Give the backbone structure.
Amino acid sequence: MPEQLAFAMEVTLNGLMAGVLYALVALGFVLIYKASGIFNYAQGVMALFAAMTLVGIMNGQVPFSHLINAMLGTEIHHFGWHVPGLLAILLTVGVMVLLAWLVQVCVMRHLVGQEPIILFMATIGLAYFLEGVSDLMWGSEIKTLDVGLPQGINIAIEDATYKLFDYGFFVDNLDIVATVIAALLVTGLVLFSQYTKQGRAMRAVADDHQAALSVGISLNFIWVLVWSVAGFVALVAGIMWGTKSGVQFSLSLIALKALPVLMLGGFTSIPGAIVGGLIIGVGEKLFEFLVGPMVGGATENWFAYVLALLFLVFRPQGLFGEKIIERV
Amino acid sequence: MKKTLTTLALGAAMAAGPAMADLVFPDLSYRTGPYAAGGIPFSDGYNDYFTLLNERDGGIGGVPAKVIECETGYNTEKGVECYESTKGEGALIYQPLSTGITYQLIPKVTADNIPLHTMGYGRTSAANGEVFSHVFNYPANYWNGASGVVNHLLEENGGDLSGKKIALVYHNSAYGKEPIRTLEELSKKHGFELVTLPVDHPGQEQKSQWLQIRRERPDNVVMWGWGVMNQVAIQEAANIRFPMENFIGVWWSGAEHDVMSAGAKANGYKAVTFHNVGRDFPVFDDIKTHVSDKGLAAGAGDQIGNVLYNRGMYAAMLAAEAAKTAQEIHGTKDITAAMMRDGMEALVMTEEKMAGLGMPNFGPAFNVSCENHGGPGLVGVTQWDADSQTWSLISDFKATDGEVIGGLIAEDSGAYAAENNIEAGCK
């Protein structure tokens, strides 16, 4: 097999894996948009907040310690214990549910019936607020996140591909884990929305708020539920990306990677987020591999958007998005 | 009663207002945003050193130093706003810790007669003091950094890099592109092949670049990164099993937080430097006694002795020494920004002076002159030990390629002078 073809296959495989990571971020956007019509600008910051909270809990860090120490003149930083990863994840999920409830009670409930742009602006405010709270609560320094996920090259894949193609492919173990977790997450979300009472209520709200209200579904509860699920998805994305780079402010910028995925896959489709992520992941990696060297490289960021725009020309609602027809 | 109240009110107003005699050092910091992890320790070091001078020595020449911190978030527009809002406070010098902000401030500081010190960053050709009268980038600049890397690789390869392949992974910004021209010149001179791999801001995703490195198998990888790009690059290098001892970064890619995320796999990673690292200096005892123990530390006190804390402290020390020089030259303790500029241009740093400040062998000895605002350009190499979680200086501060760098500085500063109708020369 020609060397270049083997390289291209390796790039494609890694593009698929990267796409899964993008899709993980995009999923959170889709969930909230689908249920409430809100484009949640704060989704990336939620991933940062969730990951920082997880590390803080694991390390037994006292939240708001800098503030407390500055105000009271104390020197308190840690509780002196370490919380096991799984328990810390469960506690973080609890924090994200609490955050969802606070968002609903303090922000969204007061904006029911407002124009989408108002709701969008509210989430921008929420993003900046959450950014500040994250720093104040847990500090701005980079934190190492280790919940026991494997990292580094997968030797089995390297050996197997070497035998087949005379070139061992690189696939990161963390990306494989992310793919499995994303698959489980999507399956779980689909099962939840199809087979549970709350899930069906969520779908009813997504289809028609008024009709859902008329049959006794509590919008408040559903929106807290949706923001909680989005918070959980943000936590998963935060763990995956945070394990790679350490938990730091830049995690909030991963939302930028989700935007072309949403444009391509559609804002209302969970499978769309996955397929969109895969297309963007493979597309940008292959473009960088084939064209990047000719134009000086660093094509991935802009090419993802070009690819999404190309799809938009032919399907404005995205690949899996709902076509909106307004009759006069 | 009314008179007493008026007196009290006036007294309070005077106490609350700026003390006119203070020596003002603005700190354009970034404690928030994607680059906060680098900005925080630098600012902590910068602030703590001036606090130390105030607490231990009663200021600089008996005049208290006052640091005005202004948050830029590493955003160029905010940096310029910070400059405009603080220059009227009697600012003596600016050290913005950002190449983008530096480029915007160069014409402003020149017009306002305020010196700008960009130690190891900014516009490299500002080393030519005949063109850039108010900009200083001693003791080393980006091109010294690039040359220092190549010199280190030459040493490792018995003085011969011909036929070697060196990959440069760089932040795709004005900052990241700075070393390319120098490395291209050095590749021609020493016969190595240079492969350039840009990484877009912020650098969270670098799979393509490291797959390419894995395919092309360079002998060495050089990193010109900042922020999250550094951590991800070191992790990706570990993932593809690239030998860490063959991976070397510029000084902005060589702090503790850059390597900690990768854990033991980062062991052996190197970075060039223009100052010493670690906590083994008497000045830190003074900082503990006069600053941290009194609860006066700028941050949480947890950054003391870290690479970027040391760099911020070093920047503050050089500013304080320039202020002392200005006081001596002009025979007054209450110096202005124009006098500070003169002090910077006449600065002499000796080993004896540094030892007296509790910082023996902390940086190279050097003299600044009107012609040379860039200092000696000496570069050392540090290496990360993952077991002890410490950086160590593994070489002396050595000379860089003056022939190549000097030519590039003359060319770039000449172009700047022509564009801006500057008549080069020393007045």
Q: What stands out?
A: Residues 142-273 of chain B form a domain with the Rossmann fold fold (CATH 3.40.50.2300). Chain B has a mean pLDDT of 94. The interface with chain A takes residues 31-34, 36-37, 40, 172, 196-200, 202-205, 207-209, 211-212, 214-215, 227-228, 231-232, 235, 238-241, 257, 260-261, 263, 265, 295, 300, 302 of chain B (CB under 8 Å). Chain B has two domains: 21-140+279-376+407-419, 142-273.
